[in-house]
């Protein structure tokens, strides 16, 4: 989905105590034996995604949004916007957001770039450095692009590496072989290009910062060539993109990397399986598919002995949300996930009407709604996550 290209704001998470070479200061989150920890105690959370917060121009709106998140028990926030400059509309704005998040007990996952074109992303590197006609996946292999990415990463990590308000560094949001540009032959199932890139970049970030956690930011695609997962449609067997390695990820292998501290994955079956999500389907529901996807990732995380975050998920339609989310959240809680629905919505903003970009806009003081937004006045849906936050908070005491 169009997701956090630059920052992901997280609240009170963890860092890998077993893998970090230095003593973790108070307020830094760690992971150990498959769970997040903060100041020596388990840290379990429900969070939220809100890509639009860094785009707000009124400081009181930033405070009001974090205040409402805090009141709902939110401990993790994901966002999306990045402008690399030192001015008031660049890193100074990011400085303010990170500082304000900390005032409300909310920590920040910072994503270094985005797979998709929305609000920038990896293809800016491809277009500027590799040039026209290049495929998306050269981002992961071109030495010039990798060097440029690392120069950028170094600026960000050095700026915030001493801040306990940072939850973790995220290498890239939703990395895939393809993006808005097509994939090339060097990034197909079995090439392990993304896994090599994850290792290279996580090792580099660890060399800069030994105290914060690192994650891939991936959607959680598996590579199960021996299982031949797929489905039949009109008499034709279709290999399942989420399991056949075509995306370039290998969730099981990527989670085993030494400097990847926890796993992330997303759930949007309503949009991934349009061929199956039809009234005539007799053996497919988006609810059941999502439950299976959650369990698959829980199993992988248990095998790796690392935590996992259901970092984005969404369905459209209020009835779908009220029927499906309790089931997904219930299984995620049972399997000790951290939970971050897409996306947190806010009303009553002082900024009344403004177009951001890509048809995203504030209207009458309401944050952008892409069909997934959850507002406080949608009580039935809101309470699903507020109640889950209470469960998570009770586990952290």
From TrEMBL:
Statement: the UniProt record of this protein carries the keyword Hydrolase: yes
EC number(s) per entry: 3.2.1.78
Main subcellular location of this protein, as a coarse class: secreted
One GO biological process term: mannan catabolic process
Enzyme type, top EC level: hydrolase
InterPro entries the record matches: GH, Glyco_hydro_5, MAN-like
Every Glycoside hydrolase family domain range: 39-344
Signal peptide: 1-18
Subcellular location, record wording: Secreted
Keywords tagged on the record: Glycosidase, Hydrolase, Secreted, Signal
Record has Signal as a keyword: yes
Top-level taxon in the UniProt lineage: Eukaryota
One MF term in the entry's GO annotations: mannan endo-1,4-beta-mannosidase activity
Known catalytic reactions: Random hydrolysis of (1->4)-beta-D-mannosidic linkages in mannans, galactomannans and glucomannans
GO cellular component term, pick one: extracellular region
Family of this protein: Belongs to the glycosyl hydrolase 5 (cellulase A) family.
Protein name as catalogued: mannan endo-1,4-beta-mannosidase
Organism listed in the record: Agrocybe chaxingu
Source species taxonomy: Eukaryota, Fungi, Dikarya, Basidiomycota, Agaricomycotina
